[in-house]
Amino acid sequence: MKPPTSTGVVDTITPFGRAFYLRQANFFVYPYLFIVAINILIAAFSAVYWSAAPVTAAQVLKLAHIQLRHLRLFKPSWFRFGFLYGLNAITFISVLTLQAVLGMLWVISTKWFVIGRRQEGSFDWDKSSYCQRWQLHLSLSQLLDRGYGARGVLGAITGSAYLVWFLRALGAKIGKNCAIYAGGKPGLMTEPDLVEVCDTYAKSSGRRLT
Q: Considering only CA atoms, which of 129, 109, 120, 135 is closest in space to residue 194?
């Protein structure tokens, strides 16, 4: 508890309250309407973004029906279902993979643009804009959580080298032969710059795994 002031009243307001409500920070604090607008825009953009795969697949089928009419691909035949299903699946998977890569690039680029490299230390809301920029980046990163089902994009690559590459791009120091979230459920690593994971060693021989 803070000591009482000269008037005998104990000041219980937090650094966040001084910055957000009293506007006593030494930097510009985003107003409430700006925060609401950012989250609405990200939610709307994510909905449109992740609907691109089925829309693209439908458009490819339409173009095949129009441009390749002479091949009679849509004519009742024994191979029609296999061809149309295969074309639809290839288009869907290709677009989803491209979207996942672009989504991760979006998170990586916005992290370095909005936050930069994190440093150890204490950052109060009313003395540093770090917390505000951190929250802004969390909102921008929601794009990865809206695709690939409930676990998001990162849930599809847990335990793989792709997740390690992604975290390294965000600033984490991860050694060789490390499986991150190998259980299949992505965890919460909100400050990868401050995370360091050493190389994995073989327990039996004590040698580094190759």
A: 120
Q: Which residue has the higher pLDDT, 180 or 8?
A: 180
**62-79 tens-digit pLDDT:** 777 777 777 666 677 766
Q: Determine the 3-state secondary structure of 160 from DSSP.
A: coil
Which of 209 and 83 is assigned the larger pLDDT? Answer: 83
Strand partners, 201: 208
Amino acid (one-letter) located at 80 = R
Report yes or no: 146 and 47 within 8 Å, Cβ to Cβ: yes
Give yes or no for residue 169 having a pLDDT over 90: yes
Predicted local distance difference test score (pLDDT) of residue 204: 40
Q: Rounded to an integer, what distance in angstroms lies between the CA atom of residue 25 and that of residue 124?
A: 10
Which DSSP string do the residues of 164-201 spell out, in sequence order?
Answer: HHHHHHTT-EE-TT--TTTTSS----S-GGG-EEPPPB
Checking if the pLDDT of 110 tops 90, the result is yes
Output the 3-class SS for 66-126. HHCHHHCCCCCCCCHHHHHHHHHHHHHHHHHHHHHHHHHHHHHHHHHHHCCCCCCCCCCCC
- Domain ranges for the chain: 15-153, 157-210
Q: What is the pTM of this model?
A: 0.79
All residues at 6 or more sequence positions from 13 whose CB lies less than 8 Å from its CB, including other chains: 21, 22
